[in-house]
Amino acid sequence: MGTSEYMIEVENVSMRFNLGIEKGFSLKQWFVDVGKRKKKIKNEFWALTDVDFKVKRGEVIGFIGSNGAGKSTLLKIVAGVMKPTKGDVKAYGNICPMIELGAGFDPQLTARENIYLNGAIMGYSKELIDSKFQEIVDFSELHDFLEVPVQNFSSGMVARLAFSVATIVDPEILIVDEILSVGDMAFQAKSEEKMLSMIGGGTTVLFVSHSIEQIRKMCDTVVWLDHGVVQKIGGKEVCDEYITKMLG
Amino acid sequence: MFNNIKYVWKKYSFLLNQLVSRDFKVKYKRSVLGVFWSLLYPVLTMAVMALVFTNVFKFSTPGVNYLAYLMSGLVIFNYFSEASNLSMSSVVANFSLINKVYMPKYIFPLSKCIFVGINFLLSQIPLYVILLATGTGINIYHLLLPFAYLCLFMFTLGFSLVLSTVAVFLRDMFYIYGVVISLWTYMTPIMYDIAIIDNPYLLFIFKLNPMYWFTYFSRRIMLYHTIPEINAWLYCFIFGFGFLILGVIVFKKNQNKFIYYV
After folding, report:
1. Is residue A23 assigned to a domain?
2. What's the domain range around B160?
3. How many independent structural domains does chain B possess?
4. A27 to chain B: which residues are within 8 Å by CB?
5. Among A121, A154, A170, residue at a domain's last position
6. Cβ within 8 Å, pair A24-B171
7. What is the value of ipTM here, to two decimals?
8. What angle do CA A189, A195, A199 make, to 5 degrees?
9. What is the reported pTM?
10. Full residue range of the structural domain in which residue A146 is found
11. Could you list the mean pLDDT of each consecutive 10-residue stretch along chain A, which spans 248 residues?
């Protein structure tokens, strides 16, 4: 598959949302709509329009833009969670999305069981989790709570466990929506350091952050999105232009 | 195509395994008897129904033991109703995951059908105890039963795929299906003999019910000690395979839209 030097190819991707259907659909609403005999008002919203870029192996690419610019939608499309309305995304390598932590935990299961369950959801193999099990436990510092159901954990403990499971892999493509720092002060520092080392470790990274400083520090390429349209792609100088525009 | 299936299996069999074992652990975690409930529960429901239907409604099945008749039907229908019910909500319940990580979405209904399937296999133990205790006995044709079970599984999975798709777009389905399944229970000859129906039109409708054929097939063997007729084999297979194909098509066509209905 590796015919090109690129790890990710995003080709003319557009994404349309229909705001109407997101309000939820019920039989009652359906009857109301039929009763009205009104044509559905098209309530469309283009979250992304004609986004096109390529990412080289080992490149760290950062996305900046205001809230609702389409950054998270773009990451979800690359991760394969959403299919774009138009265009195509090709990713050559296993993707590790770190979009939100602990979504796959079952509160009734113990920490040990949840490590395996959550790992499986992230797409890890049993062998990988077996071999990294000790590392996960060490990093989360939850040695004494392995056989305790997660519903008895404090929220900080859950976040620590989730973070430790999510960050054990060396993925070929890492998707990061904000640097996650969780837990108490000591663990926050530790988790931030771990994430920064993952990003800087030579993998291909797609990185969204509102911290321009982090973007400037970590990224080779910066993509500036505004209302779903790419304003500019370039080096770190894009950050400066963005700041000037935002302040001006 | 074959390589693709191999790849998907290799990548997601561990997840499937984890989802099924999660259901097991959660189901029995806080109960004292644990997995014994899988054995005990079908017997208890059978006992209640037998009590009601033989004493109050005076049901009987000429030539065969009523307990064996009831149990053989219940085990099969309970598999279908429990698996389809759990599958229906499985996609919606896992929206938070579907929204974040890519995984094949059919894995949720599939894992429920397998989970309940393991329970179904466990419930064969009390069934055989009843068959022996009532003097109904066992015969060599029991070796043919896996055919009916496989068809039942295909039918349930296919039906569940359709149901879980509909439930994404129409949440009212959770209530509607509750009514449908209770109607379905009474439309399937589980606690009564189909011979009590003499209206030919009604009889025709009854025989369009796939669940009728799965129970019919297994009862021919278990209770009447004969090989099922060729049409029973055919109907079982057509309903099983047909619904599986239908389910796969419906699910596949709609799965990319699920995410907008979170």
Report:
1. yes
2. 2-261
3. 1
4. 170, 172
5. A170
6. yes
7. 0.82
8. 145
9. 0.87
10. 101-170
11. 74 84 59 60 81 90 88 89 90 78 82 92 88 92 92 88 83 79 81 82 85 86 92 88 85
